[in-house]
Every structure is written in C-alpha cells, then in structure tokens.
Amino acid sequence: MNVLRVGEDALLVEVTSGEEAQALHAELLRRRAEGSLRAREIVPAARTVLLDGLADRARVICELSAAEVPPAPPRAGAIVELPVRYDGPDLGEVAAHWGVPEPEVARIHAGTEFRVAFCGFAPGFGYLTGLPARYHVPRRDTPRTAVPAGSVALAGPYTGVYPRSSPGGWRLIGTTDAVLWDHTRESAALLSPGTRVRFVDRGRS
Amino acid sequence: MTDRALAVVRAGALTTVQDTGRPGHAHLGVPRSGALDAPAAALVNRLVGNPPGAAVLETTLDGCALRPRSAVTVAVGGAPCPVTVDGRPAPWGAPVHVPAGALLDVGAAVAGVRGYVAVSGGIAVEPVLGSRSTDLLSGLGPPPLRTGAVLPLGRPGVAHARVDVAPQPAPPAELVLRVTLGPREDWCAPEAVRTFTSRPYRVSPASNRIGLRMDGPALTRARTGELPSEGMVLGAVQVPPDGRPVVFLADHPTTGGYPVIGVVRAADLPAAAQARPGTPVRFVAVRHR
Q: Chain B residues with CB inside 8 Å of A192's CB?
C-alpha cells in the first residue's frame, strides 16, 4: 500500500488492483463503523481509496503504512437486479470487439455478476466491474453530446448506467427503466460502492 | 404559500441558494457544494441572527433584487456592493430592516465576485441530502434563481447582532494560494513543478463554481495517458491535457483522471472565490504538516 498525503487532512491510499481497492474500502468502512477511524469521506476509486476530513492524519498514516491489504470480503448482501433491453446503438460495435454474434453480447453481459467498484461522474453513476479482460472495450473516439437516462454502457473494464441524460463517451448496449437516483428515497443511490448487480435480459423491446 | 416568502424581482447573472453543502456523500458521486466564500456566508447569517448553516443567496458580480412578503432582517456581505431598500441607501455588511413588500436591491459588486444575502429565518427550500445548496455540476438542490420565482423563508430565530458594520476581508488584488504538492506531482515534469510554484498566472474567465481556471504557462507532463480515476478533494489543482491548472472549488467532481499537482490550503479558498477574471495568481509551495 502506498499512502500519499493530500492537502491538509486527506490521504490517498494506492493499491495495485481494483480488487485490492474494493477490499481496502470494505476494511476502512469497517474501521469507521467500529470507531477506530474518523473520516468525513471514504471514496473508493479504480486503484485507490481517498480518506478526506481525517481527524488524526498522522496516526492513520502510521497505521496504514504498517498494514497489509486485507483479503477481499466474502460476496455478501442482496443482488440488485436491473432489467435491460439490449437494444443500444453500439451493440454491433461491441459484438465486433468481442468477436461474437450480436445476441451473444446480451447473453454474456446478463450472465455476469457485477459489483459496484466505485461511483463518480454523476450522483448514482456506478463503475461496475465483473466482465473478464477479453470483453473490455475502448471508449468511443467522439463522445455523444447527449446519452439518454437509463442507457447501459461499456468503457474499459467498466459497465455503467447513466442516471440522467448527459454527454458521454461510453458504448451503449442497452436501456433500463430502473431509477438509479432518487433523492426522495431513503437510499438516494440504487448503486453504491460494493453493491452486487445482475442485469436481466428483457429482450430487444 | 405563507407570507414568509421572498419574491425574486431581478435574479441577476447567476444567483444560487447555498448553505454549508452536503459533504459525506462523495462515495455516491455527490459533490460537496456549499457557499464558495464560506466565512462571508457565515458572517451574514450571524448578522441576521441565523445559525451559521442557514441557506443564503450567493450572487455573481451583478447582485439581485428581492421583495419580501413580510418584514425581515437582511445582511449583504462577501463582494462589496451598493445596497438599497425602496431606493434609499442601506448599509452593506450590517443588519438591515426590510419592511413587508419593500424592494431590496443588491447592486453590482464594486470588487470581488460573489455576494451573500442572508434573510432572517433563512431560505427554506426543500433540502436534498441534508443541504439546500444548488450544485451546478450535478444539478442537485434548487435551480439558480429566476426572475419571478418565490422562495420560502424559515422562521426567524434569535435577535440579530448589534453591530454597525462587520469587518470583512477585501477581495484580493493579487491571489496568493498556498499549496502542498502532490499527490501526483510526479506526473508532471520537474520543471513544470518549478513553473507552477514560481511563474505568475491569471484567473481565467472560464472559471465557475466547479473550478478556478488559470491562464498562464502550461505545465508539461512527465507521463502521458490518463490516471485511473481517483478521489478528488476541495482545493485540488488538476493538470488537464492543455497543461493549464484548475483549482477545484465546491462543486468539483468527486473523482477524476487528471493528475493533481498540489492542493490549495482551505484557508485560501474564500479569497479564490472572490478573484475576478484577470486577477494575478501566485502558487506558493508549503510543506505538509
């Protein structure tokens, strides 16, 4: 673990993989819940976890510098199921990248168990991992100026669902009616870091 | 709607509702938001007897005009500007009584950028995730004020402060921003770090609540490509592909893939919020504590 100081009261803890970042994030949440870590924000990302608003940064640096990356926590908790129509405009391109016929994209994608590695870009936008490396695809060369809300999309190792219409460069493979973000709900974000996710194929509308 | 309300007669270029923001939700992709010049917002709240976290109006350069439906106490602070009630001059930086139906005009800033208008009882729009702040990056909270809108007010609390004029720092003629280097200064060439902490910059007109953008020497990168997305903090100085640093302000994205060369001290950010386009900027490296 590489522990980097950020500003006056934050730390960026760098590990070597997304799996390690998820395991570290789970451990840091556990420490905060038990009261041994006081941090305003714990923000996981691709290969890091940011601790912001630390009450005692010097002590946390000592503790983390001496620590090993914890083992990954067991897969637990309910699976969020997102119904999808695999009708995205980039389905053909993705099939070509994967080297499979188009209907296979839906079968492979809906047959994968995903996990929210981290959130960002917009409230409720989760970066979902789970697809094996051979199914990673590059972003589009030219981003779209408007991607419709509910678009299910791929970029790099990630799958994401656009919570609202926004510009975006990810490859669109389908559409869901699931409400990803609703601030009037008790949990505004349907997907938060660590959530397990499965996409359920609802055909091509 | 009750008479505890405020009609917007002139919305101004960009007037938003702001409080202390919604920290604690960055892991869901929710920016912290909140008043950019937080000490000014806290001061005007104190002047009208509000708690420091009550929602105020944040104006941008040209003020706004408001008509309360019931008598209220207001205070205007932040960027200095003329204040009138029904056309008669009223003090800036002090509590002002505005009778029901009178017109409060908050004029154009004579210096600085962001004015703060506190109203006794606070702006009582519905909170989102515990905050009434408008977040211009993600669209959370109330939309920017529109002429003709009516804003609900909360119940006034204790009596307002007994002061003539509360001292407030003058907007900066030159912005000196202390930065701790890192966490990604190694992604910039060594001469870029020297350039960043020694050469003059100016505030770019493209600045907004998300970031204070810089005009000036471009910083060259030692490493190309994009960093895997990582968490971002308030005051982070990102180096985008064009090499011109951007200081993250309250509506900044929670994660990002451009390297952060340094982080501006929190105490220097209120002045950054008041720096007009063209203001000279110096970044001064300070040690981590």
A: 27-28
